[in-house]
Design goal:
This protein is of the alpha+beta class and about 110 residues long. The chain is built from two helices and six strands; from the N terminus they run βαββββαβ. Helices cover about 20% and strands about 35% of the residues.
Length: about 110
């Protein structure tokens, strides 16, 4: 099993959720986060003062999938969320030792 953690643009969330659901990803966790990378934020003028905003709103999507679905899920996230501009995000993949469904006590892939 692998945990896929994707940092994406907020406006791409619904499209990514639909694609992952179509691939059979049964569960995911979505969090509103802030951050910056190459995008570096932006500058705006508010009441005559220049304000530098470095932390931009992003979405962190986390899902645990079977090892045989990892490449397919990553390709789907990239295809759906890519704009070609700075700030499209990143995908991180982690090994998961075990998963346990609390309600039934199932372990491993059966718990997904």
């Amino acid at each position: 099993m692998k945990k896929i953690e994707a940092i994406i643009r907020p406006e791409k969330l619904n499209d990514v959720k639909v694609v992952l659901s179509d691939l059979g990803v049964n569960g995911m966790t979505v969090s509103n986060v802030s951050g910056f990378g190459n995008q570096k934020g932006y500058t705006q003028i508010y009441r005559g003062q220049e304000i530098v905003t470095r932390l931009l709103p992003k979405i962190k999507l986390e899902a645990v999938v079977s090892s045989n679905k990892v490449d397919e899920v990553i390709a789907a996230i990239i295809k759906t969320s890519k704009t070609g501009e700075f700030g499209d995000g990143k995908i991180f993949v982690y090994d998961v030792a075990d998963a346990v469904r609390i309600r039934t006590g199932e372990h491993g892939d059966a718990a997904l």
